[in-house]
Design goal:
heterotrimer; A alpha+beta (about 190); B mainly alpha (about 180); C mainly alpha (about 350); B: about 180 residues; mainly alpha; Four Helix Bundle (Hemerythrin (Met), subunit A); C: mainly alpha; two-stranded antiparallel sheet; 12 helices; about 0% strand
Chain lengths: ~190, ~180, ~350
């Protein structure tokens, strides 16, 4: 079995005179290096130029609100359970009267924290969520000076209430995905 | 002008030659010796012997002293400290040095100092030296080169012999 | 007399500043070129195309902490980099940078010191070059630095021989040690046409003498940390690194002068330009050649891997040295038959 078509059989045969001069080999090497000078550079000049990333790139998380601006999360803890890196913690609380505008369900997450240093950005929380509340976005997590700063609370995770500042997740929440999730939940119930 | 340069160079040469003896670290001695060579090369240039001056620097300062320094660096003498010589050896050294001084003084006394070398002589130029060397002094020159060749061969022979002995030593230990 | 003095001082200052400037930007070109060879861009953040990068590097080196190991030999530790820098700059004195410029009846040759022993002078200075490295390496009182210094010295001595012998065949042909004369003789045909082997040997030896890859064993990072400058920091380190680039510039100038016709420009005298313009064009032409050689030095560095130490010695003593001797003998025979 050959793994590559570039294998070369090593032999210890005596070098010919021309080979032992080394100069032809040196010139061949220099020809190779000079060819690289005129090649297209593979560097991406980062701040000005950004690498193209997929629509469903798994970056920083977001906690979605519904159409009326209410938080979707019900603090069921399925995302924390699904998380292989155990990066998610939450404390649930009961919705009291007058908070219907803020939270969609009767139970909500009072504290919701993701440790971005532990997170491996696998997206299992997204697929575990029955309320379509948590999503991963294309945003890359910022650099910070301390480890504590990487523990993101609800202030950083919940999306803004303004409709025009909402983050669009329609690309990753297609009908197919929804159907698949539905099927999975139903199978679980049986 | 030339007179001042001469005295400066002479002073430098004498000073550095003394420092070669006085310096405690062998590496410093070697560096002072190099400085001394440079002062002497300066004298050659004053005598319009440019070829001699440059060759003096290339051969002595550039090659021989590098080898000296090379060996001294490997020896690491400055940590071991000086070995105290016996009184007898010191007395012998003083007598020998004194005798050399007497000989030198006697030799210089006999010299007729009035015949000063004129600085405008062209004998020090490269082409003139070459012509003299390969016409008048052809035989001594070739004899000297044969001497050097034999010395080189001798050095190589000594080096080779030690290597062979080492080889046999290694083989013996391997056999054991 | 006064005019003569002013002219000499101006020329010296110009050449000094030019050497430093070219060495400064050679560091940038080197990094850019290395980047291009490795499909990268190289430094491009400081100013357009990274044009301020050498300035930034210099400022950084100036403001770094001056560190000296407490077991070092203080005086020699400082002397080392200074000597290296001084020796690197010394050679430029005898290189003829151009013909003669005539202003108001005065003749100003573009060479600081013309003597009958230019080439020997270059060898004398080159043989001094190793002392800065040796002294610095020894004075650091560090094993790696000492090993680097020892390597440097043996490498220099080994390659000086082949270098001198390869030039000797050129001297036999031209019959002069003066660089000005050597340049004038190459008005029609460059020396490299007659002496290609000598050029090759000289070029390889120049690589070894400037401690550039593939001969950078004295500062070989993989084995000796930083080699002879392991214990150096701030501007003293800067001097060592900088002198390498000055050496590269000067050896390129020497190669272009001895083998590639120096400031001689073919067919320029037929154009009917004024003397001074011809001289300046010749100087420009010399610099084009020098830059080409600097690029060649860099190209070689980023192509070839470093030699092993025994390979280095074998190449110097068993290949280049006999080859230079054979070249010398062949040149002698040809000259005799002519």
């Amino acid at each position: 079995m050959t793994l590559t078509n570039r294998t070369k059989v090593v032999s210890n045969k005596q070098m010919t005179f021309v080979e032992s001069l080394y100069l032809p080999a040196i010139f061949a090497g220099m020809w190779i290096t000079i060819k690289h000078v005129f090649r297209k550079k593979i560097t991406i000049k980062y701040p000005e130029q950004k690498r193209e990333i997929a629509d469903i790139y798994r970056g920083q998380h977001i906690l979605k609100r519904d159409e009326q601006g209410r938080e979707r999360c019900t603090a069921c803890g399925l995302c924390a359970l699904a998380c292989p890196a155990e990066a998610i913690t939450m404390i649930a609380a009961e919705r009291i009267a007058g908070e219907e505008k803020l939270y969609r369900e009767e139970k909500y997450a009072k504290v919701y924290e993701i440790n971005m240093l532990r997170c491996i950005y696998c997206g299992l929380c997204e697929s575990a969520c029955p309320k379509e509340a948590i999503f991963l976005t294309q945003k890359i997590v910022d650099a910070e000076y301390t480890r504590e700063a990487f523990i993101y609370g609800k202030d950083k995770l919940v999306e803004p209430i303004d409709m025009d500042k909402r983050i669009d997740v329609s690309k990753r929440q297609t009908d197919k995905v929804l159907k698949f999730k539905q099927l999975k939940h139903e199978r679980h119930n049986i | 002008m030339e007179k001042y340069i001469f005295f400066f160079l002479s002073g430098l040469a004498v000073f550095s030659a003394l420092m070669v003896l006085i310096s405690r670290k062998p590496v410093h001695s070697v560096l002072y010796l190099i400085l001394c060579f440079f002062a002497i090369a300066g004298h050659y240039i004053l005598l319009n012997a440019q070829f001699l001056a440059v060759v003096h620097i290339i051969v002595y300062a550039g090659a021989i002293m590098v080898l000296f320094l090379f060996t001294l660096m490997m020896l690491n003498l400055n940590i071991v400290g000086e070995v105290r010589k016996s009184v007898l050896a010191r007395v012998a050294a003083v007598i020998a040095g004194g005798l050399l001084l007497v000989t030198l003084v006697a030799a210089l006394k006999g010299l007729n100092l009035s015949t000063s070398l004129s600085a405008n002589t062209q004998i020090g130029m490269t082409s003139n030296i070459g012509k003299v060397l390969f016409n008048e002094y052809m035989f001594p020159f070739e004899a000297a080169s044969i001497l050097f060749l034999s010395a080189m061969v001798g050095a190589v022979m000594i080096g080779k012999k030690e290597e062979e002995e080492e080889m046999t030593n290694v083989q013996m230990t391997n056999d054991k | 007399m006064i005019i003569y003095l002013i002219y000499k001082i101006t020329l010296i200052v110009i050449i000094l500043l030019m050497s430093l400037l070219i060495a400064m930007y050679a560091t940038l070109v080197e990094r850019k070129f290395a980047g291009f060879i490795q499909d990268r861009y190289g430094p491009d953040r400081a100013g357009p195309w990274g044009i301020l990068q050498p300035v930034c590097d210099g400022v950084k080196l100036f403001f770094k902490e001056e560190y000296m190991p407490n077991t070092a030999d203080k005086f020699l530790y400082i002397l080392g980099p200074c000597l290296t820098m001084m020796v690197a700059l010394l050679t430029s004195a005898v290189i003829p940078w151009g013909g003669t410029i005539t202003i108001a009846g005065y003749n100003f040759p573009l060479q600081v010191a013309s003597s009958s022993i230019d080439i020997l002078y270059i060898f004398a200075v080159v043989s001094m070059g190793v002392y800065g490295i040796m002294i610095g390496g020894w004075a650091s009182n560090n094993k790696f630095a000492l090993l680097g210094a020892v390597r440097a010295s043996s490498q220099m001595i080994s390659y000086e021989l082949a270098m001198a012998l390869s030039i000797a065949s050129v001297i036999m042909m031209t019959g002069t040690l003066s660089l000005q004369e050597t340049v004038n003789q190459q008005h029609t045909i460059w020396n490299v046409v007659y002496q290609p082997l000598a050029f090759l040997i000289f070029f390889i030896c120049a690589l070894a003498e400037t401690n550039r890859a593939p001969f950078d064993l004295p500062e070989c990072e993989a084995e000796l940390v930083g080699g002879y400058h392991t214990e150096y920091s701030a501007m003293k380190l800067g001097f060592y690194l900088f002198s390498e680039y000055i050496n590269m510039f000067i050896s390129s100038a020497v190669i272009s002068t001895i083998f590639f016709g120096g400031y001689n420009m073919p067919f320029i005298s037929n154009l009917g330009l004024s003397e001074n313009i011809v001289t300046l064009l010749g100087t420009a032409f010399l610099f084009v050649k020098i830059f080409a050689f600097i690029l060649l030095f860099m190209w070689v560095r980023w192509t070839l891997p470093r030699f092993r130490y025994d390979q280095l010695m074998k190449l110097g003593w068993k290949i280049l040295f006999p080859l230079a001797l054979v070249n010398l003998i062949i040149t002698g025979i040809v000259m005799l038959l002519k």
